[in-house]
Amino acid sequence: MKAQKAHLKLCTRGGILQTMGNDNAKMNVINRSSRNVRAFISQEKLDVEAFITKYNGQSVDTLLPHSAIKKFCFRPDVPSYRILISENGALPWEKNQYISLFIEDEDDKEICIKHMRFPVFFYLLSVSLGFLCVMFVCLWSGTWRGGFAWDGSFLQFNWHPVLMVTSLVVMYGNAIVLYRVPLTWSRWWCKRAHAGLLFVAMVLSVLGVCAAFDFHTANNIPHLYSLHSWTGISTVALFTLQWFVGLCAFLLPWTPLAFRARLKPLHIWMGIAIFILSLITSLSGINEKLLLTLNGRNGSNTKPYTALPAEALFANSLGIAVVLFGLLVLKLLSSQKWKHPESENETDRVRV
Amino acid sequence: MKAQKAHLKLCTRGGILQTMGNDNAKMNVINRSSRNVRAFISQEKLDVEAFITKYNGQSVDTLLPHSAIKKFCFRPDVPSYRILISENGALPWEKNQYISLFIEDEDDKEICIKHMRFPVFFYLLSVSLGFLCVMFVCLWSGTWRGGFAWDGSFLQFNWHPVLMVTSLVVMYGNAIVLYRVPLTWSRWWCKRAHAGLLFVAMVLSVLGVCAAFDFHTANNIPHLYSLHSWTGISTVALFTLQWFVGLCAFLLPWTPLAFRARLKPLHIWMGIAIFILSLITSLSGINEKLLLTLNGRNGSNTKPYTALPAEALFANSLGIAVVLFGLLVLKLLSSQKWKHPESENETDRVRV
């Protein structure tokens, strides 16, 4: 069985250096001869001086082998204990830095699993609902609306709901909850999967917009007149902007860490705002499509929307599934407890 | 000048009792003879034993006058320091409880003001946007759509957008950010204002639904066929349920505190979900109304929606204002930093 990380944090809050971690981590510090202790270091500034010498008869080197200081992690929700360390020592690292120790510990796995039971349940539920949304929107366009083409006809427009729901709702939603689950992925891979999934979503959403614009042009329908189109085009524009800013700030290696750290809260908030805009746009879009196609005109044989034919029931259910998927994703995002332990700080490049 | 509260927290994290607060609070403990020290106590369970005897030569009674233990407050974002307290003492309160001290302190006012500059700006912006939304929806229905009546005609339907936007978006939004601003209100008044504002919103939203249903009945239009109506009726139903559950759980005095504390995260999450549902429903409703009325039929003299006449521009702008208002409210709610210091725990009735 692969060993899990336990967390033994050393921080300088209030001017007194201390370690925090669960009891397993504590025992592992004491009996660390058989364990792999790794120390991670951050650039987070603190306004107090840190100091450390002894813990329970052990020297600093036992707690913090210099060679292993690599990376920072902050995880405030793990059950913690505290060890006080006397004041008569010097720091083995720079002043005003925030320190964490990670200790390999099999028993800590249980804590991780217990902590992740709920988010994993919600995540699986949201993945299932996302799959249902894609299936429903494909069936609606593919079966009820006659299938797909790229010839300027209604069949071309059918790509629009499929591509928009798939990209801006389902793929986008899955990409933004990546930092919550699964826990075993490294931050490095989470970032790449997040950016990659969003890149595919961005391409598909632009294609979806093109499908609608081409259809309008071919049928002399003006572009961007409805409220749906106003919110929709804003969503796609903001999404594209957010993706490029995110790429430059968080993936290119030469971005200053201080800039990353300052941008991150805005990036997170914009990401959630764009997702809510996507939900708003999707629902008004499905409603608009049904009002425009099931109106007893256009030579359609179907019953009008007001009579709630099977297609209307089906597409309304798609709308409800989209809402439920969206609320589940927002639920997953809302919990501070389910954050990745390593995703708190922008320190990928700090390798001391 | 009225003195503000500074925070001196005593907590049992890791089995060692300690106080946390800013430097002003620390000084005020030391020189407390001229200050009004109040201790607040919670029912939060911790899995360690707490102990306290001395701080800097002062006795427990100096730090925690028994008579004043009243209420709990937890505010992790206030700049903090820590005092360690030796182990050879007994607790003046129950084991496994979480303790906070509040100290009157004029200097701390500056910290509060600095902390609240951003939320106050966002709050004023959201109030202005909310006012704009109400004004726009009244003008749309009152002027562009011919005014109001309660006679089963289109003029009766005009009440629907006005009442729904006013109640479920603007009043609801203002009611849910009450716990963020203004800081000078007591929790007791925040609760009552929150419940009262939501009660008025609930009554208005039910009236708004009645306006639409009556109009449908008078004009032989089926009820609840569109996706807008499905999300709308769900929103109003969930809102009504949430209000009654909230009343029973958080305002009636005989509800067990443990039940309150367990329900609170769900209550908060449901509140936000209902607000997002309101935004989704409003946007699809405005879009639907424009598609149904500006369709070149119904003997209307106006240009169709596709030609984007002045009314369409106006109502689309209303939709954008609603979205911006909603995102601002969600921004205000999202920040942990802007939480009321006293709103963390359900301890209104704990007066020891």
From TrEMBL, chains A, B:
**Is Translocase among the key words of this record?**
yes
Q: Where in the cell is it found?
A: Late endosome membrane; Lysosome membrane
Domain Cytochrome b561, residue spans: 125-334
Highest taxon of source: Eukaryota
Enzyme class per UniProt: translocase
For this protein, the Enzyme Commission number is 7.2.1.3
Per its record, what are the GO molecular function terms?
metal ion binding; transmembrane ascorbate ferrireductase activity
Q: Which residues cross the membrane?
A: 120-142, 162-181, 193-215, 227-254, 266-286, 306-330
Bilayer topology:
Multi-pass membrane protein
Q: Which Pfam families match?
A: Cytochrom_B561
Listed under GO cellular component are: late endosome membrane; lysosomal membrane
Keyword terms = Electron transport, Endosome, Glycoprotein, Heme, Iron, Lysosome, Membrane, Metal-binding, Oxidoreductase, Translocase, Transmembrane, Transmembrane helix, Transport
The record's function comment reads: Transmembrane reductase that uses ascorbate as an electron donor in the cytoplasm and transfers electrons across membranes to reduce iron cations Fe(3+) into Fe(2+) in the lumen of the late endosome and lysosome. Reduced iron can then be extruded from the late endosome and lysosome to the cytoplasm by divalent metal-specific transporters. It is therefore most probably involved in endosomal and lysosomal cellular iron homeostasis.
* Complex and partners: Homodimer.
- Name of the protein this chain belongs to: Lysosomal membrane ascorbate-dependent ferrireductase CYB561A3
Q: Which organism is it from?
A: Onychostoma macrolepis
